[in-house]
What does this fold into?
Amino acid sequence: MLIEQVKLVSNNILARGIYAMELSAPGIAQSIQPGQFVNVLINATWSPLLRRPMSVASRQGDRIGLIYKVFGSGTATMAGWLPGQQVDLLGPLGNGWSAVDGSYPVLVGGGVGIAPILFLHDALDQAGREHHLIMGARDGEEHFLTHAPERHITLTTDNGTAGLEGTVVDGLKQVLNQVGSEPVTIFGCGPAPMLTALKNFANAHDLPCQLALEEMMGCGFGICQGCSVELKTKFGKDQPSYRERFQLVCLDGPVFWAHQLV
It folds into this structure.
């Protein structure tokens, strides 16, 4: 982990309210792995005070890519940044995805949760490993990929304006039918309701599933204890065990196995 002053290369709109940012960050790019994230300092005056955690969506040489959606004042400020601007990054942070041999990877992303999924998608492509990518959104204006099942890319929308009508779980069911009896591992990232649905589906069908959680983070490296998540352990609620029953998304995650999560 390091603090690096990096240079903004580009900052373009991808879809409605969604932006792609490319940064020249040779130090972080050297060691960043799919699933990890960086913490972005919005303003050198520390207003707003807290950094914004951003999953890394790509790495090309000494450059990394971020995908973000404008939600509040911090991301609204980021959307106005121009090429050439210096940006203060803290990273790489988190644990990243775990490699799973002998199974077919199915990657599932929702909203800006597609960022760490795209990084994994690129890594699998570069390794020549066949896989399927599913991306969900509320409507077609939030998509920036093309629905192409023949190329193993499936889009879903709640209102049916792009790809399949329904949720990513509906898309997952269709993909699993195509895969047949081949062992599958699911990799997912997105908003909490989507992750809950993926977790429930994977557990109900006894499918290995890794989920990258999205939580509010004060520090990003385990000091503030603000992003705790409860895991299933041998300890009951009357026997809390710190660091076994409760772990931190920023330090122990953001990737967890679905069967471990309460």
The chain has a mean pLDDT of 92.
